[in-house]
Amino acid sequence: MDDPRRSALDTWLSNHHGVVSHRVLESFGYSRWAISRLVSAGRLEPMARSIYRSPTHPLGRLQRLVAACLLVPEGAVGYTTAGQEWGLRRMSDPRVHLLVPHGSSPTIDGVVIHRCRRIDPVDLTARRPDGVRLTSPPRTLFDAASIIGVDGTESAIEQALDERRCTIGTLMATSRRLHHGNRPGAAVFEQVLTSRPMWRGLAKSELERTLRKAVAQAGLPAPQVNWPFQLSPTEPIVIDLAWAPWRIAGEVDHPFWHDRDVEIRRDKRRDRKLQAMGWATPRLTQHDIDHELDASIDDLVAIFVQRGWRPGDAA
Question: Which helix H or strand E contains 286, and what residues bound it?
Answer without folding.
Answer: helix 286-291
